[in-house]
# Entry
Amino acid sequence: MYERMLDKTVTPTFDEMAAYCGKQKALFIELNAWLSKKEGIVKKIVFPYGNSYGWGVAWKVKTKLICNVFAENNAFTIMMRLSDRQYQSIYPELQKYTQEYIDNRFPCGNGGWIHYRVTSVDHVEDIKKLLAIK
# Structure
């Protein structure tokens, strides 16, 4: 249902990735445009972490990864890591959908990774809140 762009031999353009997001194309563009306005942030189209992740947009400040945005069929997924303290600072302000991702994050040191599937405007607003504290 939410297949990713897995053909490693063909590097997609940003526009092709946005089009692949189908019904969520406008949200994909909106979030990436919002990220591009952050000071010192750079985007790069990448195929990271092995064959099952697919093509995505990596957002970095120097060498620090802010997030990856993976294009999916009719959706997209944000992969990001925050500290426990950062998650706790914003948790009460987030929707139940977002809280469930935080509750089930993949632990890593003092914090953890979330793989947050975006399928609505509300999801974009919550992910912006999370990215703002990164």
Remarks:
- The beta strands are 41-46, 56-61, 64-72, 75-83, 106-107, 111-118.
- The longest strand covers residues 64-72.
- The mean pLDDT is 96.
- The helical segments are 14-20, 25-36, 84-90, 96-103, 121-132.
